[in-house]
Amino acid sequence: MNKIINSSLLAFKEKNIENPELDLRILLKHASYKNEEIILSNINIENININYFKKLLLRRLNNEPISKIINKKSFWKDEFFVNSDVLDPRPETELIIEESLNNINKFKKMNILDFGTGSGCLAISLAKEFPNSKITAIDISKKALNVAKKNIDKNFLNNQIKLEFSNLESITEKFDLIVSNPPYLSFNDYHELQLEVKNHEPKIALLGGKDGLAFYEALANKIEKIMLPNSFLILEIGHTQLDSVRLIFKKTNLILKKVTKDIQNIDRTLTFFKI
Ligand code: GLN
Q1: pLDDT score of 1
Q2: Is the dihedral of CA 22, 25, 28, 32 positive or negative?
Q3: Domains (ranges, CATH) in the chain?
């Protein structure tokens, strides 16, 4: 095996990087002049921009996730541009799309709100799955909105998705479907995060106040004013939050229709219905 490959692998292993071979292949491909799949045991090192590769390697050794280094992350049916201004789309958040499709006809003409859109992954995936719907995607991070804009442009969805620098208070419209993966970590959860997340994903997208519940409280206070009759609210929650979030929404007239577990068997999304 080539010397650079060998020493890089060793460095990854010493740092306890979870998937050393896979990560190495991805970084080498990213630094390759040819953009071909890399076979570690049989690599033609002349095809690699070595200086660039070394920079990428150092970033990974500094616990930066692969997605942030190559600026790509897959979610639902697309690949999204990501950087340190947004949370990486996560597989458990795809449950929000699944639940929307389980409950609503694809061709329904809806007014949809994505509260805290981040990279825009939910808004964009919903726009494609519900082609007759209009979507308002809001965020309180201007930097995140720039990323969402990039992803919306890439997918030619400017006519279907309206991006707004806005918080919940300024929303006056009413919606048929509201989705959100709000920041929901408590101070304690936040401090215990793995370095990949803590040092390379935005705090503003993760921290939901001291107890992690601030955004659910805000939603519950406003929600009835912004939901149409026969509408849905589909929310992601943290792994210990089912009882607290259920309690917060008790004061609304929404009906909790379903709790969905993710593949790790964690209660992950709540589907509410407004009559
Ligand atoms: N699931 C994320 C994490 O554990 C948190 C996402 C969020 O706060 N919405 O890193």
Answers
A1: 65
A2: negative
A3: 3-62 (no CATH), 73-274 (3.40.50.150)
- Residues of the chain where predicted confidence (pLDDT) is lower than 70: 1
Q: What is the pLDDT of residue 100?
A: 98
pLDDT of residue 90: 98
Helix (H) or strand (E) holding 268: strand 267-274
Residue 274 CB: number of other CB atoms within 10 A? 18
Say how far apart CA 21 and CA 175 lie, in whole Å: 46
Distance CA 75, CA 213 (A): 25
pTM strictly above 0.85:
yes
Which residues have CB under 6 Å of ligand 1?
Answer: 87, 90, 181-185, 197, 206
Report how far residue 178's alpha carbon sits from residue 5's, in angstroms, rounded to the nearest whole number.
48
Distance from the alpha carbon of residue 185 to the mean position of ligand 1, in angstroms: 7
Question: What is the per-residue pLDDT for 2?
Answer: 85
Query: How far does the centroid of ligand 1 lie from the alpha carbon of residue 56, in Å?
Result: 25
Return the closest-CA partner of residue 185 out of 142, 139, 216: 216
CB 211 within 8 A of CB 180: no
Quote the CA–CA distance of 259 and 31 in Å, as a whole number: 43
What pLDDT is attached to residue 236?
98
